[in-house]
Amino acid sequence: MARQARYDRPTLLNKAISLFWDRGYHGSSMKQIEQALDLRPGSIYAAFGSKDGLFAEALATYADQGRQELMGYLESSESIVDGLQTYLRAMAGTASASADKPARACMIIKTLLESSRTHPELAGQAEQILADVRKALAEALEQAKMAGELADHTDCERLARLIQAQIVGLRSMAERGLSPEELTELASDVSAILDAYRARH
Description:
Layout: H1 9-23, H2 30-37, H3 41-48, H4 51-76, H5 80-94, H6 104-115, H7 120-146, H8 156-175, H9 180-192
Helix pairs in contact: 1-2, 1-4, 3-4, 4-5, 4-7, 5-9, 6-7, 6-8, 7-8, 8-9
């Protein structure tokens, strides 16, 4: 009978996400990866091929979790704009760095900055993730515009870039040690940007 693996891949990837977000690619040694995943080197290489392979899959999982989170807010709200605003305000809670729920945009931006010269493949993956997020925001905004939630003159691509820039800024500000109250105020101010684009009925 074949020996059954004593771990499941999603659990390993979530552990890797926490480690890589905290220490980055270069700051995470194989010894630290072994300890975080509670696996021997041979098992790690058998499962992911290499440190690069593990990081790439962890980053992809991280991005997918963020996409699912955004879609959850959009699908559970009465309108797309309301869902986006709720999502943005909720970042006051998720922007704070913690072992179990790191800030997604921070990991993506950190990867881009850290790997642009040393690991172009990982940097390219981070660039693509940011482009996909911007596309998802633009598509949601276009739907809101078609539904009459946004003014007809709204440039949804441009607004998506603005919102993404604000998200990145909010995550970065969280790393500076802002208090929960300050983060809540900042997230509220970011979400209020959308009010200026609402259709006037």
